[in-house]
Design brief:
alpha+beta; 8-stranded antiparallel beta sheet; 4 helices; single chain
Length: about 300
């Protein structure tokens, strides 16, 4: 496939690079058979002529030019601003193909990937062909779409979504179902909210986890029950300490505290001392008879 490059801009042209990708893959795109759009399953790599047949990769640049002699824009108010998509040789900077971005349908996103696009290039005599380009990173494809949408807004394409191809990425709402949905999903906040939990199941351990969880719940129930009855309930009427209690269902009578004498006796016994009993000689076992020993 031979494509004649566009003529160089005149000295009065002001250009700026809107987007640059150092490496994109080029594909041959078969004729479109569905109005839904392009799919990459039928694309084949664009190669050099045989016998080498080496897949071609190019450098991609999106150039915005401001000059009255540049490619005409479809917006009459900004007819001195144009945008081109250039596919160039990465080592020699030789132009391989050029796409005058004059309508949103010049670049269409694919149905099955956010990295691949169908680009309508233009050659000598106004001949056109559709080439497939593929970025190596998904982020590059999203940035490429953002740049083309910005260029479309500059050229007044915001309100042309109804009259232009809905597959064109330059339209304000074009291609949203294909690449915008995936991008919005990437931006979604997946952080855990308050009260949310993550449950991880490991093979062969899920049953053990469940059983241990059941035991923990049972222990918690027992602890709760014990905590409820750790404090004795109040005494029933008439069943208090020292009360006869006509009901008969009170607690047993508590023993009175020991007297001081009993406490002292207990201390002597603990020290090995024998308590001296008080009383008369006869009561203590002594003979107070005829000899009068204790008189």
């Amino acid at each position: 496939m031979s494509i004649t490059p566009s003529p160089p801009p005149d000295p009065d042209t002001i250009q700026r690079v809107l987007f640059l990708s150092p490496r994109v893959h080029i594909y041959t795109v078969p004729p479109l058979t569905s109005t839904k759009g392009y799919t990459t399953s039928a694309w084949t790599p664009f190669t050099t002529p045989p016998p080498s047949s080496v897949p071609i990769t190019c450098r991609l640049r999106v150039i915005e030019s401001s000059s009255s002699s540049s490619f005409p824009s479809t917006n009459n108010n900004n007819n001195n601003i144009s945008t081109q998509i250039l596919l160039e040789d990465a080592s020699t900077a030789a132009l391989f193909a050029a796409c005058p971005y004059t309508s949103p349908s010049c670049v269409e996103s694919t149905l099955d990937s956010a990295r691949f696009f169908a680009v309508t290039v233009q050659g000598e005599g106004g001949r056109k062909a559709v080439l497939g380009i593929g970025f190596e990173e998904r982020g590059e494809g999203c940035e490429f779409v953002d740049v083309l949408r910005g260029a479309g807004r500059v050229m007044g394409w915001d309100n042309r979504g109804s009259s232009s191809s809905s597959r064109g990425v330059g339209v304000a709402d074009g291609g949203k179902e294909r690449w915008g949905g995936a991008r919005e999903a990437a931006r979604k906040d997946w952080s855990l909210k308050d009260g949310e939990m993550i449950r991880v199941e490991i093979g062969g351990l899920s049953g053990k986890v469940d059983r241990s969880a059941a035991r923990n719940e049972e222990n918690v129930g027992k602890d709760t029950e014990g905590a409820l009855f750790s404090i004795r309930p109040p005494l029933p009427p008439g069943g208090g300490v020292g009360g006869g209690g006509g009901g008969g269902g009170g607690l047993p009578m508590l023993q009175p505290p020991p007297s001081a004498k009993e406490v002292k006796a207990e201390r002597r016994r603990s020290r090995g001392m024998v308590e001296v009993q008080e009383g008369s000689a006869a009561e203590l076992g002594f003979d107070d008879g005829e000899f009068g020993e204790f008189q």
